[in-house]
Amino acid sequence: MSGGASKLIAAMMLATCLCLFGCAGVVMQSEIPDISDPPPDAAVQLTVRCAGGKCGYVDENGEFAIPLTYKVAKPFYEGLASVYVEDVGWGAIDPVGKLVIPPRFAWIGPFSEGLAGAELNVKNLWEWAYIDHTGKTMIPLAYNVERASPFHAGKAWVRCPFLFSSMSKEIDRSGRVLRRIYPR
User: What CATH topology corresponds to 40-102?
Assistant: First the structure.
């Protein structure tokens, strides 16, 4: 397909979307702000260490503060770290290794502004929500989701399937869609 034809198809897709959804809140792909993970929690001085197919956490002296227990372990954010318990699911632990959120999720992202994006069900990987520090659903996402990014300044980006690509939705803490970004 020539460059002109692909631009025409993209323009037609955008026009269709504008007719369906209106032009309010539509921005171009190049306008997506940084959706990176927040910096790890500096107050929790534990670092992920993996060996022999298991992961745990070491302190600043290199000593294991939380033993090699988990299949996958992530850094601490807001005092919690997402961990994967093999054949069970993702949960979250506190700095002493206590499971604060039982391992029942398909995935849990980093906590930011009190919330983390979580894939709710391994049988439906499109089902996401934002959960609080106890694992309670705070913002259910009532549409298919590929990834729910961390909150920054009260807003988060949610990537959703769209035709043969993805679109992004910016949401607020109530889950209201503020704007949409369609693929080019």
Answer: Thrombin, subunit H (2.40.10)
